[in-house]
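Input record (one chain):
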Amino acid sequence: MSRRELIKELAKNLNISQNKAKKFLQALTQVLFEELKQSRKITIKNLGNFQTKIRAARKIKGPRQKIEYQIPERKAPVFTVSQNLKNKIRKKYIPIETKTVLIKKSPPVKPTPAKTVPPKPTPTKPAPAKLIPIKKLETKAPAPKRSFFDALFGRKKPKPIPKPEHKPILQPTPKTEPKPAPKPTPPKPTPVKPIPAKPTLTKEKAPALEAKIPENIKAVRKDIMSALEQPPPSEKAKTPYVDLKQKKIPKEILAKIPEYIARLYQAIPVEEKAGKLVVAMVDPEDYQAIEFIKKKAGKEIKPVLATQDDIAHVLEQYSELETEIAEEIKGAEKLEKKEKPEKAEEIKKEIARTEAPTSRAVHSILKKAVMSSASDIHIEPTEKEVIVRFRIDGVLQKVISLPKSVSTSVIARIKILSNMRIDETRLPQDGRFELSFDNRKIDFRVSVFPIVFGEKAVMRILDKSKGILNLEELGVKGEAFDVLNKSIKKTHGMLLVTGPTGSGKTTTLYAVLEKLNKVGVNIVTLEDPVEYQIKGINQGQVRADIGFSFAKGLRSIVRQDPDIIMVGEIRDVETAGMAVHAALTGHIVLSTLHTNDAAGTVPRLIDMGIEPFLVTSAVNSIIAQRLTRKICEKCKEKVEVSGEVLKEVRQEISKMPEKTKKEAEQKELAFYKGKGCDVCNDLGYKGRIGIFEIFVVSNTIQELVLKKSSGATLGKQAIAEGMTTMKQDGILKILDGITTIEEVWRVTRE
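The corresponding structure, as predicted from the sequence alone:
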């Protein structure tokens, strides 16, 4: 019998669903396992015995080679079938056959009269043999079946169902003259005897039957039924939900459940309440997990519902980076002290091992950076120590200091991951690698640069599991959104995004691509690297090591019949010329450039060697942007500002375009700030948002470009035509309570 058939049989005999029968089988297996683990013998009536026997040591030979293998003495579970079950199996598979015996009887012969010659008889066919029915051999009816479940749950034997009587076989008669056939009469319906219902267990009979059940069966049944106990649907519906995103669990509560169990069952201890341990679970109806956690914690469990993201957030709180790395650093220091010139190769091999102390320490640093939503990791050796800093929300923060002695091994481990040369310490090197944390694929772009006290490593983190943000979520709204939306609907031309490194230029281009991504267009990109994969877009990767550059790739893309082309970055005159040529030949071209503001992009293109008349014909609009930190919503509070700051804000509002100015004047002139909490690590900021200025190349600006006017002149003309500057966009977000005035001033001050 297969497992599926056994579950169906369980469900049928116990009158329960197959899901409950499956849990029943799991519980029974667990009970048997625990009993056999204690070397106890389990006897189940009408089934057999479960016990643990010691198998003696023995030798066996291999199938092909004449080599003997020694198998040591070991304990093994053994099942012995009971005699009653054997008898039932024999009766089922060796039935007693019954036969009907037929006896031939010849027809009677008439006597011949004496002294007379009889006339010649007419030849007739002999009459067929007469069949006389003989009763079926009587055999004793087999006893009604009583399954293992009847014995386990104290059910009585079912009464045997009476078999229908056998009708005698009709005796054929010799042929006679045909008689007129009687009128057919309708056959009488055979009365169907009702099948007796299965006996039910009444309250009066229950005590007597319960007394007959053996004690060992009662113990097994008790364990099984306790495992099967489930709350009614009304209680399931009332399972409370807990939000853990902004909650910090005390260490003494987290210690109630070990980290490996919390990760295995996705269950987090939240608090102790009324003598019970409140446990947040993704599946509060996983009663097997609840029973296991109950044994480990030694307390009653009260399950509550939580999301997968909230559970992952609390799992980060199990171990701080300092305590996690402390032990690994000790092992790494011992490894460094053993290093000698003649053992350099052995040390490199040791560092390359994933279970080496240095490898585990580096892995912990990378994991902490990913969990902290850092964009960059800086590992900087100094005279006495190695400083590790994370760039979180655009600002570098010191995380930990490592001993100077582990500097070489830590950098060597990063080089091995990035496929760099370990022995080259005098020249800069670049590389990349990919790791997975909690089923999230993370890409690391690595740069190693030699400095006075060793080698500095900087790693850019790209989380590919994050979704693409739209323009509204990035912070483009109001009149700026309308201008950008109108610009990207054109059939050809260039859209450039400018700003310093790390200002979110590529993210903005992805948001524009997501808006343009339709079935009827062919979109091809050339990136370095491909940060996010978008369905329906053909994304290419630059490979400088084999000569596949932006310029070379752009030549091939033009021959791919594209409607929209995205170039990751315009770095040289060749790439710029190819992009302008593609924009002039009926394609939409999206790309990035490094300039301080939108108006300065045009002089930058001219300086690279692009003729002014080509710039005016190819470029449609330019976006300049910066990223500012957002105020933490949990600890947000209203603050007062100085008179000078208030005066400067009012001056900027007065310079805004009329439509934007009216919107700003209708808002309350209020300022906010985060005081710091556990959610934002006492920084007062959580997350980032963009501030933008959108420069549209109008007819007047085209004339200024042909005259090779400066970026300042072009900027003034754009403002006169209604462009909102980055500073003004930042003030609008200040009045909305999204960011602080210090943040806007930090990213827009020249």
